[in-house]
Fold these 4 entries.
Entry 1:
Amino acid sequence: MKRVITYGTYDLLHYGHIELLRRAREMGDYLIVALSTDEFNRLKNKKSYYDYNQRKMMLESVRYVDLVVPENNWEQKKTDIAKYEVDTFVMGHDWEGEFDFLKNQCEVIYINRTEGISTTKIKKELYGSDTK
């Protein structure tokens, strides 16, 4: 079985998220999503509209997602790859090169994000600012 992992906050779940998850799932047989916890988001100076449990529940209802695990810190990626026997690590192209250090553990792929949609754009249009 080929296992794929991706990471993110997945706040205000939108079709860009779904498209990223669909494409990531096509790269393997089992998709793991490491979801940023509320505590980790605070460390990143991000504020989610939905709390961790709500975001987790929404992701678990997406048919492309097989497992949702908490992302507690930047450093856990190496241990997650070993723990879940990951073959492919997938992130959006805006992270290009940032996770190349994982290439000695698994395949690292950066995929293009869906144009015209992002959580930042939604928040800006709704709230009149680009709050993280």
Entry 2:
Amino acid sequence: MREREVSAVPSNENIITRTLGRAPDRSVNIGAWQFARWRQFIGSYELPALVDPVFVVHVGGKPDTRLWEADHWSQSRSIPGCATIVPAGVSTGWRIDGELDVVTVSVPVAELTQQSAVDQFRAMRFAFADPLGIALTRQILGELYAAPTQERVSYIGTLLDALKAHTLRGTTPSGDHAFPSADFSAYRMHQIMNEILARPEEPHTLEALAARAGLTSSHFCRVFKKATGITPHQYVMKARLERAQDLLGASDLSIAAIADQLGFTSQSHFTRAFRQYAGQTPSGWRQTIQ
């Protein structure tokens, strides 16, 4: 009886549940809005078209989620702390290769009455920064796992209303002038991290990265390590080695060509770094994969 009712009333939550093979870890409704956390170990999967657009927050799990773009996986990657907008009526492909841990906020089409809200949910937007939306989402999650009290119920309702208002207001990031260049911001950090992931072969010197963040080199290094757990240099190296794994598995480029393409000083430097990262040489890893 319950299954018939679910089938008769399609919703984003029902569609995602059927796709992942399990119900959300936690969920709560704000009227017709649905707030749900999904946790599942999964490789790659195709999500059917949703009935309502959805605001997605990457809260944990694998720090390397990719989107299928026409005929290849995206170069950009979603990491914990990124947001994504998936429009209604569009099927999407995802690669996790590990633990999926996201929150979805389903936005009823009927409530998109303002043109600005219609515009922001009309197209796919993958792995962008929205510090306020992400902070509200994390706060709501924390309360959903807390002991139930009347005050907690009221507080969750207030947070959900705030997230709803923020989502309808619009999440399109402003230009750099809207963010003080003298201070650190989550927006700038995510922007820098995504730039490294998109173009790991570039030099990405500490001085250049710090300048983009509007910080001194020493301050930027401290802030970056606090946010990611590793230094900027280690993050750049990790991005290069991950790209090297992609190239070794999906191309016929020689080891020397890959080393040169990704900005390593020599093939031997690349081989040492790759062995330390992957536990085997580039040629050995290529043979294993192929």
Entry 3:
Amino acid sequence: MTRLARWIQRVLIFLIASVTLWFIVTQIFERIDQRVPVFAALLLTYALAAYVVLPPVIHASVAVLRRNRIPRVTRAADGLPADPVNVVLVGSQEQLRSAFAAAGWHVADTLTIRSAARMVVSFILDRSYPTAPFSALYLFGRRQDIGFQEDVGDSPRKRHHIRFWAANIDPEFGVSDLAYWTRRLRIDPSQSHIWVGAGTTDTGFGLQSMTWQISHRVDRDADSEREHIVATLHGSGCIAEERYIEAGEPVGTHFITDGRIFHARLVPRESP
């Protein structure tokens, strides 16, 4: 990407962020503040901004600004860089599930009010929740398609985890087509896809930047988690044609990483 293109992108992002902030402050907070006490208005504004307004804004922004590109990092709902992309696996969703199941990892529950409440209770009581849900991160303009995790000990506060996005399921529509925004993406579990993954280690709970969504805190050493994931996949016997892809650009986040991406093909598990 040229320097001019980067500056144009930054200006567009700034404009989108400014309009979004103006909308939250003047159209949401001020209207709520006229009807309820200030504390309740702030609480309702936070909930609407973090979970209703910002996610679709990020979806639209990424869809326009990063069309036909595999980003080097995922994005949080606030639009800021999140977990680095560090694993790419090629195969079907069935093979992906089988590989991580053989390694002893669990598919994460969908984030709902019920699963979020169960996660909070598990955190407070320090009780294991092997399929705890993930917060939403975004790649290709959408949240993760599937995620896997492995507890660190019996505590729900720490876990190895990785989110995956199927990179080649988008239909060939332009962003100006209504179908691009209204389509429902469906993944055929038996069809081969390029699974782009972002793996990190959760070390506790905290608040996300800007949106203040409640989420896990993440270990900055992303390379260590990448190597742990590679080791577990080796143990499952479900990968072949392994190699590392050297990143063309820095990852661009606060994570400590050399930017390399592990790449492998998923294969049926060998019999003992």
Entry 4:
Amino acid sequence: MALFDDEARPVVKTHQIGQDLSLLSVGELQDRIAQLQAEIARLETELKAKGATKAAAEALFKS
């Protein structure tokens, strides 16, 4: 709890879906976008890896 209105508010490092964005600065929004883009790339990489594993398993059982 801040004692004075001019005290800095705590910076939230992670993004929450549906979070109020109106209080974030342009820089904070850009940081969030970069974090989310990195997370999307990580998820896509994992998805491709799982797809390759599934394809290999399906090829093994079709033989």
